[in-house]
Design brief:
With about 300 residues, this protein is mainly α. The protein has eleven helices and four strands, in the order ααααβββααααβααα. The strands form two sheets. The protein has a two-stranded antiparallel sheet. A hairpin with a 2-residue loop joins β2 and β3. α1 runs parallel beside α5, α1 packs across α9 and α6 crosses α8. The radius of gyration is 19 Å and the shape is globular.
């Protein structure tokens, strides 16, 4: 029983990180109806900002860890706004395929620019939060795991409050529903879309910091697989649906952790994608998504 609870805790910790990244995918899709493939590389940039910022604060302190987290989120929010302004805004109104190809180009640009600026060799991520482990009847809980789960919950609640309790959140939902009608009633679509990219990128940076805390080896290509898993989580929960993205991340992280602890660990990635295929066969819109017909 304790082994089951241990794996469940590990899975929820990993799933919370996937959920944070998936929220960025689903927010951009909800507003602009395209997949921002560069999102996983913003996740990588967030981890590297944390790496360098972590050297400027005392290791293993709460205020130092929170400072690093906020700095990484701020830096990536600015990066997300710049990417939207330079790469995606000029293509607004063009065919979706053009934007998708541009997103892949931006992703590759960030990855290989990262290799130029940060170097290709893996770096060891510093211990930015206090690190302790507690043994509760055979269940080992580390402060890193608790920090991941608590911070992820706080950020998700904050996102819900922004989307459903603020004027900007109302504008985001209006643009997602009908951008032309939103503009007619006075919503500035440019500001709303920039804010959406900034907010999603800040969550990706938080995911990068939390991921690096638990898997403390970072490199410029570290975002590829977690980003792909987070995209799967967003589709699994229902792309464009914020609670669905969170649910998909938690489910995917839990499944992956249980598979990784079994004799089938070699197939953990394949099984994760097989689960997605099965869900898509029976619920094409995802677990919480609504089915709609779109021209591709």
């Amino acid at each position: 029983m304790s082994e089951f609870l241990q794996q469940l805790l590990n899975g929820l910790s990993l799933g919370a990180i996937y959920a944070l990244i998936a929220l960025g995918y689903t927010m951009v899709y909800g507003v602009l109806r395209f997949i921002n493939f560069a999102h996983s590389d913003v996740f990588m940039v967030g981890a590297f900002i944390g790496y360098y910022a972590g050297k400027l604060v005392p290791e293993g302190t709460l205020w130092g860890g929170l400072s690093v987290l906020l700095l990484a989120m701020l830096g990536c929010a600015v990066l997300g706004i710049i990417i939207e302004r330079l790469a995606y805004r000029p293509l607004r109104g063009r065919p979706t395929l053009n934007v998708l190809i541009t997103a892949i180009g931006v992703s590759l640009l960030l990855e290989y620019s990262g290799q130029v600026f940060f170097g290709a060799a893996p770096r060891t991520f510093p211990q930015i939060f206090p690190m302790k482990s507690f043994d509760l009847g055979g269940l080992v809980i580390s402060t890193n795991q608790l920090a991941v789960i608590v911070l992820a919950i706080v950020l998700m609640i904050g996102l819900q409050l922004i989307v459903f309790r603020t004027k900007m959140g109302t504008a985001m939902r209006a643009v997602a529903l009908n951008p032309q009608a939103a503009q007619l009633v006075g919503v500035n679509n440019d500001i709303v879309i920039s804010f959406t990219f900034g907010l999603g990128s800040a969550l990706a940076a938080a995911g990068g910091i939390l991921y690096a805390m638990n898997y403390p080896s970072i490199d410029p290509l570290m975002g590829v697989m977690p980003g792909l898993k987070a995209f799967v989580a967003a589709v699994l929960g229902g792309i464009g649906n914020i609670p669905g993205a969170a649910l998909g991340g938690l489910i995917l992280g839990t499944i992956e952790t249980f598979v990784n602890g079994s004799e089938w660990s070699t197939y953990k990635d394949a099984i994760a994608f097989a689960v997605l295929i099965l869900i898509m066969l029976f619920r094409p819109a995802g677990l919480l998504g609504k089915f709609s017909v779109e021209k591709v």
